[in-house]
Write a structure and sequence with these properties.
Blueprint: H1 7-14, H2 24-37, H3 42-60
Helix pairs in contact: 2-3
């Protein structure tokens, strides 16, 4: 299987969050989960969703729907 890390920015884009817009701590959290839980695992995807949600809320000044 090809590098699943390449899919992280694509998934974030679907959540309307750009990888470069994330804070370094959020990026570190995503990569730590990638290595700890494995790419594509439910736990890793949950971390990505949580990070995307926080980033969206920060950039849009409110709760994500």
């Amino acid at each position: 299987m090809r590098d699943c890390g390449a899919r992280i920015p694509v998934f974030l884009a679907m959540c309307k969050v750009h990888w470069r817009a994330l804070r370094q701590a959020d990026r570190d959290e995503v990569w730590a989960s990638y290595y700890a839980n494995g790419p594509g695992s439910p736990a890793h995807m949950a971390v990505i969703v949580a990070v995307a949600r926080r980033a969206y809320e920060r950039s849009h000044g409110g709760e994500a729907r």
